[in-house]
Design goal:
alpha+beta; eight-stranded mixed sheet; three-stranded antiparallel sheet; 11 strands; 32% strand
Length: 266
């Protein structure tokens, strides 16, 4: 196997989707976002099942210091609400990394993974900005902040740490603004996330604010992680069945040709 493909298959390397900022004014911009998001899936999503405790080590430090963590990941799947999970669905995040402020560096100058995957319960999402609703699709880049929660896992009899009350700050397609070709200074490109492109029916979750909750949030000039600890209420979550193979089935599919094909396009 080609050593580069092997890195992607092992999930130690990944490549998140992006578009050039110049395409932002293209009247077909939403179509371009959807095409790039779908095309990049073989380079974005995990291909292996991983048993890892690295997440617990890092998140425990945030928990002990009572500090929220800023993170970035790719959206991989959704678990629907069921009786067994107390009617709370969860968003599956792949390649969870710490977001240290510069979005371009976090996206492309790859830091060490916090973990290959983690679940974010939708009931833990308490705020996503001033917009009334957001759609979330598989392959989207998602950025957020979370308080860390501690929980006991009966299957292994151990304490673990995960993402607790959360704010989603961005979710969508990265667009990159490259410096002018004749620029003298060596500057990094600028990156931002376009959330409000039209995903048509290709989304898995829609988050919105109920009227009563919007009235609660309006009491605050700014909703941040400190205030989030005391806000009572929940966003409304609407689920939609994914059009792609679920993560269990996908881990059984060993189609390395898709990885090779997408790599050739880059």
């Amino acid at each position: 196997m080609d050593p580069i493909i092997k890195e992607y298959v092992s999930d130690n390397r990944w490549m998140l989707p992006y578009l050039d900022y110049k395409l932002h004014t293209n009247y077909n911009f939403s179509r371009l976002c959807n095409e790039e998001r779908r095309r990049s899936l073989p380079l974005v999503l995990n291909h292996q099942k991983h048993i890892s405790t690295s997440r617990d080590t890092l998140l425990k430090d945030f928990y002990d210091k009572h500090l929220p963590i800023k993170w970035l990941a790719s959206v991989a799947d959704i678990s629907m609400p069921t009786i067994s999970n107390h009617y709370t669905g969860s968003i599956l995040l792949n390649h969870l990394v710490e977001n240290k402020g510069n979005v371009f560096e976090t996206l492309f100058i790859t830091p060490e993974q916090i973990d290959y995957h983690t679940w974010l319960q939708t009931s833990r999402v308490k705020y996503f900005g001033h917009k009334r609703d957001i759609n979330i699709s598989i392959g989207d880049v998602i950025i957020g902040q979370s308080w860390v929660k501690k929980y006991y896992k009966k299957s292994d009899g151990r304490i673990h740490y995960g993402l607790g009350k959360s704010i989603i700050t961005d979710c969508g397609m990265p667009i990159i603004k490259f410096p002018p070709a004749n620029s003298i200074a060596i500057d990094l490109p600028k990156a931002e996330i376009i959330s409000e492109y039209d995903r048509n029916d290709d989304y898995i979750v829609e988050l919105s604010y109920p009227d009563y909750y919007e009235r609660i949030l309006s009491r605050y000039k700014k909703v941040d992680m400190q205030k989030l600890q005391y806000v009572k209420g929940n966003v409304y979550v609407s689920y939609k069945k994914s059009q792609y193979s679920n993560y269990h089935d996908r881990l059984e599919q060993k189609d390395n040709s898709k990885i090779a094909q997408v790599l050739k396009m880059h």
